[in-house]
Design goal:
The protein is α/β, with parallel strands linked by helices. The protein has nine helices and ten strands. About 40% of the residues lie in helices and about 20% in strands.
């Protein structure tokens, strides 16, 4: 069985609670060997910790997603340091910058993200970075430092090919999402055809970023009928990336396993 690794997911998400008894065994049957389960705000960090404690191979990650920085408590920095110290195998994430959503405050995001980068450097943890329409700002911040000494993941990388080399020199890995198999995501597929193999990872972002209907091997929806990305669509992401790279899934998976270990398991 080919070992698979999900570099970025939210298995703790409340939308997946009622499906947990089904998707956890399904992942095991597909060969899942590890996953990074990302928190997005203080209120969901306990759920991340609980899920990871209950399931082998799960790596907790704690941070403030840019969509939720306004919800942070006055003591958020101390709380983040505490939970990172409580879980020595944990990572920092999901953190970052986002100019896509309405009403964003990029300066406030920058302040929080800068603190999170400092924390990651202090505790020597890898970082998972979310970035939408803020690539120049991210480039500036990484140049100014501190760059994460353990490296970082640019999850569901949607930036230009021109920045890949600089980000890689700073310690970046780039994860491919099944969402990039949608017809309109041709530019992302072209970028992932060229990213150095030693910098590639694969993710689901479950329950978000589902594949197109014709590639959706594990359709799932919430109680109101809205689509969800089933965690088992990890196999769809691997298959899609292998096609783009023109290589067997087994060969790709072996290299992704090495990359995952290098970033998240040192």
């Amino acid at each position: 069985m080919t070992p698979l690794f999900d570099a970025h997911c939210h298995y703790q998400d409340a939308r997946l609670w009622t499906h947990r008894a089904e998707f956890v065994p399904r992942l095991a049957s597909l060969g899942l060997r590890g996953a990074v389960v990302n928190g997005t705000r203080e209120s969901d960090w306990p759920a991340v910790a609980e899920f990871c404690a209950a399931h082998l191979g799960m790596i907790p990650s704690f941070g403030l997603h840019p969509w939720f920085v306004r919800e942070r408590s006055p003591a958020w920095r101390d709380a983040l340091m505490q939970v990172l110290n409580d879980y020595p195998r944990s990572a920092v994430g999901e953190v970052g910058l986002d100019r896509w959503f309405e009403g964003h405050d990029l300066e406030d995001q920058r302040r929080v993200f800068a603190e999170e980068l400092v924390i990651a450097a202090e505790v020597k943890r890898p970082v998972t970075i979310h970035c939408l329409r803020a690539w120049g700002t991210l480039q500036e911040m990484l140049r100014a430092g501190p760059a994460p000494p353990r490296g970082f993941l640019l999850h569901a990388y949607g930036g230009p090919m021109e920045l890949v080399s600089e980000f890689a020199r700073a310690g970046a890995f780039f994860s491919f999402s099944p969402y990039f198999l949608h017809e309109r995501k041709g530019e992302q597929r072209r970028v992932f055809a060229e990213i150095p193999l030693e910098r590639l990872l694969v993710e689901t972002d479950a329950p978000d970023l589902w594949p197109p209907p014709e590639r959706n091997a594990h359709p799932l929806s919430d109680e109101d009928g809205r689509p969800l990305n089933h965690p088992a669509n990890l196999e769809v992401a691997y298959a899609g990336l292998a096609e783009i790279r023109g290589m067997p899934v087994e060969t790709l998976a072996a290299r992704v396993a090495e990359n995952f270990q290098r970033l998240f398991c040192r």
